[in-house]
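Sample entry was shown:

___
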Amino acid sequence: MEAESKNIVRKIIHIDMDAFYAAVEQRDYPEYRGKPLVVGGSPEGRGVVATASYEARKFGIKSAMTSKKAQQLCPYAIFVRPRFDAYKEVSRRIREIFSRYTDLIEPLSLDEAYLDVTEDKLNIGSAITIAEQIKQAIKDELNLTASAGVSINKFTAKIASDMNKPDGLTFIGPSKMEKFMEKLPVEKFFGVGKVTAEKMKRQGLHTGLDLKNQTEQRLMQLFGKSGRFFYNIVRGIDHRPVQPHQEIKSISAEDTFSYDLDKGEELDEWLIQIAKSAFKRLQHYQIYGRTLTLKIKFEDFKQITRSISFPTPINELEQVLDTSKMLLANTDLDGKKVRLLGISFSNFGEIRVRDRFDGYQQTLFPEMR
């Protein structure tokens, strides 16, 4: 059955709402329209940016940026508190639109999802037509715009949805898949963060073609299990199915170093980068666990973990950095060199968790952003 499923040519759509939080605010409050709007944080420099309008993005303001930095980039930016109840309600209505076409919907967050329309409910047959209809319905019924990527697998569909934002639709078909992947810069590969991209470039790997020219064994030596994924994806191979109602058990980030580390300063520098990557993923899903685990793999491939749990969710970058550094500092490395560091979050608790964000209380929804 598994082999048979791998031979199916799927029709996958990735829908990504455009500047979702900010777009909802600008829709509901006309005075924000056409202005640089920042959702999350404050002009006093507290908290972080949840999202920014396209007017604010022109100044370089991005999600997960500190509000202090955002305010420096655009002193007259408007800061507003997130209204997660409003965003969740809009997201529910977006899901209703999706469900007209398929039940195979995998939400990644409040504002994005994968849809498998290989067999759609309305027998339309064309994934491009379905994506066009979904985009139009979102525009007509919710007065918001979405971008769509259409392809034969999840990886390429997600990349495609980001290519012509806002309000874009990009199709990458089987005949163009490998050529597209070969030209793609490594930092554009979904799942390749800043640290991994820098490591790739140090190895002379700048594009998908560079990755394609490596053996699977070599990529796994450099990047662990992710190496096999890179080996396959540059060839357009991604058999991951769209998984409705997927429960998130943990969120993590890790890196295997190009050479084993033994200097405290180098370990600290890498730990900071990995902690930032892991925290960014938390923000992407808007779920905050109570347990942080530090993973250390030594030069002899032996592995240890160190964990700490808190009574309330870990929801600030500073807490992640301080906790990670503390766990590393209190771990006896016994003179061994370190091959890999990783940070993971777990113990997400109930579906609805009370969380602290930006100096005030709000409700977060782990199943979506």
About this structure: The mean pLDDT is 85.
